[in-house]
Amino acid sequence: MTTCRECPRLVAWREEVAAIKRASYAEDSYWGRPVPGFGDPAARLLILGLAPAAHGANRTGRMFTGDRSGEWLFGALHRAGYANQPTSVSADDGLTLADVWITAGVRCAPPANKPTPGERDTCVTRWLLPEVALLTRLRVVVALGQFAWDVAWRDLGGRGPRPRFGHAAVVPLEGAGLQWLVGSYHVSQQNTFTGKLTEPMLDAVFAQARALTA
Q: CA–CA separation, 141 vs 150, rounded Å?
């Protein structure tokens, strides 16, 4: 997966970011490739994001690692008992996950954080669906944001008209062992800085997910 060059626009962007770098990370060696999912292979909970952040996972090579979004996500996972530590700064920082797998609908950092429909469809077909098929104990998907909610509903077992996305929304799934889709506002700075998403709100989502996998 990490050698995929299927989407020319994404390949060009991820490599440009890795070459030019952000000034604060000028000394870092950027990953600059597709970012694989990671976590517990026996997970019952799947966390689905949008795509790697240009200077987060595209730099570190691990989903939600090395940026403010990851600080929020792993802080919540630690409080919920899914992670052994509340931080995720590098791919070799000792983080381990229990009963949770983290992935994204698109595996390369997209310009303006907006993949095209074609890029989404290619990545879902080539990488997300085979990945989920290997995670045979999955029961619940927590979708971080509208994009992930739409991918989960369309490709991971939704039936009928797509339900409206909302924070803490819960709808049933019918695919590959998956039973429930739970919505959460994305852990982006746009949401956390403005108070649209608070720590108690995020904690409630993972408490809900825990109950649904019990």
A: 12
Q: What CATH number is attached to the domain comprising 167?
A: 3.40.470.10
User: From CA 108, how far away is CA 1, in angstroms rounded?
Assistant: 11
Is there a contact between 76 and 199 (Cβ–Cβ < 8 Å)? Answer: yes
- The answer to whether 8 and 116 have CB atoms below 8 angstroms apart is no
The pLDDT, as a whole number, for residue 176 is: 65
Q: In angstroms, what CA-CA distances link 196 with 70, 183, 209, 211?
A: 17, 14, 20, 24
Domain that holds residue 121: 8-213
Number of structural domains (the chain) is 1
User: Which amino acid is it at 150?
Assistant: D
Following DSSP, what letter does each residue of 23-73 receive, concatenated? Answer: GGGTTS----S----EE-TT-SEEEEES---TTTHHHHSSTT-SSHHHHHH
Q: What is the pTM of this model?
A: 0.96
- Ranges of the chain with pLDDT below 50: none
DSSP state of 128: I
